[in-house]
Amino acid sequence: METYCQIATDLENDLSGMGEISDKFPEQIEYATGRCKLALDHLHELVLKKGFPDKKSEILFFKKIKPSVCSKLIYFQAVFDLESIRLKLDSESVRKYFRREQKRILKYMKDHKVKVQYYRCGHRHLDEKYFLRDNSEIPLEVKDSHSLLDENFFSWHDHTFSTIMANEMLLEYIKNEMKKLDHCQGDNLPQSNLKWTGNKIDLQELLYAIYFDGSVNDGKATIKELAEAFEWMFNIELQEHIYGTPEQLVKRADPVKYLTHLMAILRRRMNNKLK
Predict the structure, then answer these.
(1) Helix 200-213 × helix 257-274 angle, to 10°
(2) pLDDT digits (tens, 9 = 90+) for 140-164
(3) Which superkingdom does the taxonomy of this entry point to (predicted)?
(4) Cα(145)–Cα(143) distance, rounded to whole angstroms?
(5) Are the C-beta atoms of 28 and 22 separated by less than 8 Å?
(6) What's the 3-state SS for 169-211?
(7) Which of the chain's ends, N or C, has fewer CB atoms near its CB within 10 Å?
(8) DSSP 8-state symbol, 101
């Protein structure tokens, strides 16, 4: 079982460093879903090859290990769908859309409240029924739908648990995004139509350059105030870990890589104008 657990742990570690791979949302989601699929494929391969030494191990796998991986895949795919639709909507439409999604998720949780309670309370009395593959009580329609993939890699409710876990993460994601929308509304500011599509670290570099130069409010603007302004302007989260940004910049081969890049582009364009 150690190998199975290690695959799930390695996935957690890979996803925790997702921000270092790219600051661009589509690339982050592509990376995350790719890592989840690889981990799930690896688990599938090992289950077919090695199986389980006993019922206890099989239950542990289908109750916790597989759902911990599968739920992340469901979650990231759902976030991608949310954000893809969001790009086409204005602020108020986004708010309505998020509320509809919240209701849809909560309806699923209500419809499966017995399984949700079983999951949240850590019950075990139905584990052999829910998480062993050789179970004659599994409804035929459920068996048929899963056997199209591989009946040796599913139990009656491992996917239910995966969906419940993904839904909890989605509800938290939507709640946080709604807070951001409320923050903008509370400031009585119209929603910006701009979205930063470059690397976040580049924007942070520009932010600190302006802050250190003291170009705003005679140098009295705080880094937090500037970050809030950039967040509103470019619809991006900047305040988390903002005070640690200089350390990140210094670690790079060129701490002012983006500003150097901007200078080169501007000089080239200006030179072309003069010719």
Answers:
(1) 80
(2) 555 544 544 577 898 989 999 999 9
(3) Bacteria
(4) 6
(5) yes
(6) HHHHHHHHHHHHHHHHHHCCCCCCCCCCCCCHHHHHHHHHHHH
(7) C
(8) H
